[in-house]
């Protein structure tokens, strides 16, 4: 019997050997032919990575007996392939450029590109199946042995079917045939070199230090040019009107600066508080009354409005704006037909205060005509023309010579003047091309750009698009594909940088070479920063965090260059034809069957919609989940059910199911998702799982040995057992438990963590157990949160030793400690050799902390927050790097002096605080924000620096306001007005519930100080306030908003001709004594 088994094994080995040998020969053939045919930089990103992976991955699957049967040395074969790889270049990138330069070649080039993609996809799929098999066997061996999994990077020899090797041989043979097509492309290269701008991509993309939904905030520092247009818009906004609602349209082609002008107007009018509420909504091509109404409410409340019927949303909107003067800004409007939708959208605005206005941007004059007929008022329009060359030149030079002295580059300025004339008045083209040139300050490159402008005969929108494409083609090939991917999202979509990079990783856009130690996330960050630097992205000032958008015209570029590769299917989009070549798609649930024919789909993003009637459950059809999927994201308004066929998605790396509105929603997930061994991202935020699946999740998730990110509800995260097996994790929320699989030593193997939160730390039994978390060896850890519960039972000595043994690596940047029961801070916070790199430290609910932490040992600390530490009576000297301090319900009696770079102080509920040194801000040259609230025993405030922008005090025991530091004779380094007077930066003053305050004196009436920026003063409920500043408020020439309420003892200023400045716009007073009488007598 043993002899028969040996014979069978030998036969199988011989058969395997023949397959592997043929595969290796095919690899060699492909590599050499590609290297000989094309010797510049094009097939590399495709061929180099794939061939290297093939060579690297085949040998670990060979039986050990096979080595002797190969007719050549395996190591030698790999070396020959690796020597050929540097000569293999990225023909597909060049081919994309060739389509632009030589339109006659586009058809055969497009065919060749698609054949190349199919060949590469097939090869990568086979490699992925080999790796899937390895991971599956590793998990199986781990479970059988009852131990922990080794790192997923470790390789073990395992048997693999001949079918997979047949597929691999076929894929590489096809690659060999495709490489032959490079010969045709090679013939075009020299003929077109003078027409294409050569880039230096890899260096820039990889340089760590290298240099949309729209919002109402300007991304630019200044808005250059368009002086007349800006004045016209501002004049209309400030002009009184008898109409309840009027409208004004900024009309023009894409890229002329419509949105920028609207943002400028929004910013200017916001600073003046001319309107009670300003609402910015980015509309774009999909005109949805529900969506726009939700955005209006979100903007008003600065929070999500929730999942509600449209009539409820409109009632809420009506309540928010009723009786208020509203400015509604609608950016990028296209809808010029659906009058009923416009009527429904505008209905709540009809109850706004007289003088409310709608400012909108559009490419079509017909939008303004429809809107004016809906609101039944005259419509004003500003047709935006091309910028004059003089203005465009200023804009162009501001980007082309950013950070550089233009006088040092006289030769380039002359070429730049020629380029500006070819941009035909397009601001977006000036910005993008300017930023492109800023990275290449040499004459040949600038001349190539100038010559290229001559080739395409710039004229209007079409040729502006070609100019923007030029910047795209100068990106590295791997960054180009990242940008193309973004086209599947709607115009003005807000991107989260971290989430987008995770998607790029899942799609395989971020490829690590074997020699690279950098994380793919870090490589992706470099890609993103390059796109941001080149103006492909812009920052969006979103209320829920840092977000980025793609400019409208840049989004059109993305759609143009991704045609046939990426596709977006909106609701009721019946005219769209989807080619079979599409790899990445986003689709509305109502149109999902339109993509069922896409066999090579790699990414699928599905948007679900609110159902007024019927089931709230979206069921994903099994016929649309093709085996080739790498990314599946479902988000919208419904719960979700995934089919059991999910198990065939062996290539899946990213699975995210998210409902737009908060709350727990039932997600029906098949147990087979825990057999998706390639999965890197698993997100089901807010999910409520059935008990049976919850039990599967408890241990099943540890099968996902490639997992880097998981996001579940707290209920689910508490149940996950044995996380030590997920050694690739980058982020983790961990709940310490008493049972096996939940001990703190589960963290010992997770050495790649970047962000770690540990809750229920009280369940660590002893200090020795805490050391088993191995935090000190986690060099990559950037943020750490240590959390106890608020239970009263505790052993102080034991807790202090436990936190000492939870010492992180010195590379830590952010540290949060909550409900810690010790009396002192951990010893590792007091060690200064080597110092911790912590820049943010937050202490919450440390009720027994009474020994002042030594913050001076943290030389990098910038942000310090202390909340609910009632026994902490004093702070030590603050580190010189500190910029922000926030104190809330802390038992402090006094405060130390503040460092030179300090910017922001917030104190709340510190009733024991009696003293802040009068010169606490003496060295502060950057203090901008001071807010002190509910400190009833604080009787005086320190002198203020002139840099202060916001001064806010509430419920303090002060009897007088502080004065400014310095005087005209001692104002070294201070900002001065004409005549040596000091110039305050103050913009806003808020004083309320200060019952001991008798006069608005101090800094508000210092003779030698001017207030050119002060535009808002709010005084309320100061019952003993008698005297306003001796010059009243007339000296504050920029004051536009004044509120004085519930100050019944206020006296009028005698013999004062000017109580208020002439440009006051918003005045509110009531129960304000004689001052109110005086104001009313003068017609206010």
UniProtKB/TrEMBL annotation:
The chain crosses the membrane at residues 20-43. Residues 40-139 form the Disease resistance N-terminal domain. It comes from the Eukaryota. InterPro entries: LRR_dom_sf, LRR_R13L1-DRL21, NB-ARC, P-loop_NTPase, Rx_N, WH-like_DNA-bd_sf, WHD_DRP. Residues 744-869 form the R13L1/DRL21-like LRR repeat region domain. Residues 488-558 form the Disease resistance protein winged helix domain. Gene3D superfamilies: P-loop containing nucleotide triphosphate hydrolases (3.40.50.300), Ribonuclease Inhibitor (3.80.10.10), Winged helix-like DNA-binding domain superfamily/Winged helix DNA-binding domain (1.10.10.10). Keywords: ATP-binding, Leucine-rich repeat, Membrane, Nucleotide-binding, Plant defense, Repeat, Transmembrane, Transmembrane helix. Pfam families: LRR_R13L1-DRL21, NB-ARC, Rx_N, WHD_DRP. GO terms for molecular function: ADP binding; ATP binding. Residues 230-384 form the NB-ARC domain. GO terms for biological process: defense response; response to other organism. Belongs to the disease resistance NB-LRR family. This is NB-ARC domain-containing protein. It comes from Rhynchospora tenuis.
């Amino acid at each position: 019997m043993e002899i028969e088994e040996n014979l069978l094994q030998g036969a199988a080995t011989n058969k395997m050997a023949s397959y592997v040998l043929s595969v290796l020969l095919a690899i060699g053939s492909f590599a050499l032919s590609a290297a000989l045919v094309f010797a510049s930089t094009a097939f590399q990103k495709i061929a180099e990575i794939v061939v290297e992976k093939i060579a690297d991955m085949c040998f670990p699957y060979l039986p050990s007996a096979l080595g002797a049967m190969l007719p050549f040395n395996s190591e030698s074969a790999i070396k020959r392939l690796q020597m050929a790889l540097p000569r293999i270049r990225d023909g597909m990138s060049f081919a994309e450029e060739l389509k632009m330069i030589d339109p006659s070649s586009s058809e055969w080039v497009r065919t060749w590109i698609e054949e190349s993609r199919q060949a590469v996809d097939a090869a990568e799929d086979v490699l992925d199946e080999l790796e899937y098999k390895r991971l599956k066997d590793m998990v199986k061996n781990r479970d059988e042995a009852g131990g922990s999994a080794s790192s997923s990077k470790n390789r073990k020899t395992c048997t693999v079917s001949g079918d997979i090797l047949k597929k691999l041989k076929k894929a590489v043979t096809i690659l060999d045939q495709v490489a032959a097509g490079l010969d045709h492309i090679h013939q075009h290269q020299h003929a077109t070199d003078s027409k294409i701008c050569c880039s230096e991509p890899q260096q820039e993309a990889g340089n760590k230090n290298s240099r949309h939904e729209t919002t109402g905030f300007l991304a630019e520092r200044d808005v250059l040019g368009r002086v007349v247009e800006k004045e016209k818009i501002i004049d209309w906004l400030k002009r009184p009107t008898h109409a309840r609602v009027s409208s004004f349209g900024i009309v023009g082609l894409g890229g002329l600066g419509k949105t920028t002008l609207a943002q400028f107007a929004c910013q200017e009018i916001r600073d003046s508080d001319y309107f009670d509420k300003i609402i910015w909504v980015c509309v774009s091509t999909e005109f949805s009354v529900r969506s726009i109404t939700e955005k209006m409410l979100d903007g008003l409340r600065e929070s999500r409005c929730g999942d509600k019927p449209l009539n409820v949303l409109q009632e809420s909107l009506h309540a928010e704006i009723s009786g208020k003067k509203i400015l509604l800004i609608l950016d990028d409007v296209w809808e010029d037909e659906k009058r009923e939708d416009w009527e429904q959208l505008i209905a709540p605005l009809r109850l706004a205060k007289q003088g409310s206005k709608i400012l909108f941007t559009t490419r079509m004059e017909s939008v303004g005509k429809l809107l004016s007929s809906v609101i039944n008022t005259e419509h004003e329009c500003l047709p935006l023309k091309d910028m004059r060359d003089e203005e465009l030149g200023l804009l162009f030079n501001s980007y082309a010579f950013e950070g550089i002295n233009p006088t040092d580059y006289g030769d380039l300025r002359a070429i730049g003047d020629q380029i500006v004339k070819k941009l035909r008045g397009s601001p977006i083209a000036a910005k993008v091309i300017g930023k492109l040139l800023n990275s290449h300050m040499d004459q040949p490159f600038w001349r190539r750009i100038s010559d290229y402008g001559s080739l395409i005969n710039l004229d209007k929108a079409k040729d502006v698009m070609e100019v923007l494409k030029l910047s795209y083609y100068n990106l590295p090939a791997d960054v180009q594909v990242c940008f193309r991917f973004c086209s599947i999202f709607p115009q003005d979509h807000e991107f989260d940088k971290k989430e987008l990079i995770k998607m790029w990783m899942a799609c395989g856009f971020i490829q690590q070479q074997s020699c690279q130690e950098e994380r793919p996330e870090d490589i992706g960050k470099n890609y993103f920063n390059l796109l941001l630097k080149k103006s492909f992205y812009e920052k969006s000032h979103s209320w829920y965090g840092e977000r980025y958008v793609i400019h409208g015209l840049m989004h059109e570029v993305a759609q143009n260059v991704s045609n046939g590769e990426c596709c977006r299917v909106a609701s009721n989009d019946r005219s769209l034809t989807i080619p079979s070549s599409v790899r990445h798609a986003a689709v509305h649930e109502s149109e999902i069957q339109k993509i069922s024919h896409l066999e090579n789909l790699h990414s699928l993003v599905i948007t679900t919609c609110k159902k007024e009637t019927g089931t709230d459950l979206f069921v994903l059809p099994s016929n649309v989940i093709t085996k080739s999927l790498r990314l599946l994201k479902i988000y919208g308004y419904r719960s979700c059910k995934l089919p059991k066929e999910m198990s065939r998605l062996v290539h899946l790396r990213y699975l995210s199911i998210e409902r737009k509105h908060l709350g727990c929603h039932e997600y029906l997930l098949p147990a087979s998702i825990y057999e998706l061994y390639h999965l890197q991202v698993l997100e089901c935020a807010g999910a409520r799982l059935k008990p049976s699946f919850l039990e599967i999740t408890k241990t099943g998730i540890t099968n996902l040995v490639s997992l880097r990110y998981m996001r579940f509800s707290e209920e689910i995260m508490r149940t996950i057992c044995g996380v030590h097996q997920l050694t690739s994790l980058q982020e983790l929320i961990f709940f310490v438990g008493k049972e096996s699989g939940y001990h703190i030593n589960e963290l010992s193997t997770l050495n790649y963590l970047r962000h770690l939160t540990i809750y229920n730390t009280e369940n660590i039994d002893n200090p020795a157990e805490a050391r088993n978390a191995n935090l000190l060896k986690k060099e990559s850890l950037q943020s750490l949160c240590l959390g106890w519960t608020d239970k009263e039972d505790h052993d102080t000595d034991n807790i202090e030793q436990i936190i000492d043994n939870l010492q992180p690596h010195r590379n830590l940047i952010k540290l949060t400690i909550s409900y810690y029961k010790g009396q002192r801070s951990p010893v590792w916070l007091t060690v200064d050799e080597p110092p911790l790199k912590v820049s943010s430290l937050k202490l919450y609910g440390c009720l027994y902390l009474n020994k002042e932490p030594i913050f001076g040992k943290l030389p990098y600390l910038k942000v310090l927050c202390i909340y609910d530490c009632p026994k902490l009576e004093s702070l030590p000297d603050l580190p010189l790097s500190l910029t922000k301090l926030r104190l809330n319900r802390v038992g402090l009696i006094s405060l130390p002096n503040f460092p030179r770079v300090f910017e922001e102080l917030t104190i709340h509920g510190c009733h024991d605080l009696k003293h802040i040194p009068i010169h606490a801000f003496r060295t502060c040259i950057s203090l901008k924000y001071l807010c002190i609230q509910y400190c009833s025993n604080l009787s005086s405030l320190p002198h203020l620096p002139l840099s202060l922008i916001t001064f806010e005090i509430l419920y303090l025991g002060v009897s007088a306001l502080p004065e400014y530091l310095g005087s005209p004779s001692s104002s070294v380094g201070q900002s001065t007005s004409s005549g040596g007077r000091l110039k305050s930066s103050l913009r806003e003053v808020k004083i309320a519930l200060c019952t001991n305050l008798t006069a608005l004196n101090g800094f508000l009436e210092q003779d030698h100080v001017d207030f050119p920026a002060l535009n808002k003063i709010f005084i309320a409920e100061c019952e003993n306030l008698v005297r306003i500043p001796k010059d009243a408020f007339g000296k504050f020439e920029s004051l536009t908003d004044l509120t004085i309420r519930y100050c019944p003892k206020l006296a009028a200023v005698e013999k004062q001709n000017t109580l208020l400045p002439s440009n006051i716009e918003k005045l509110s007073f009531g129960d304000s004594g004689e001052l109110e009488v005086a104001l009313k007598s003068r017609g206010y």
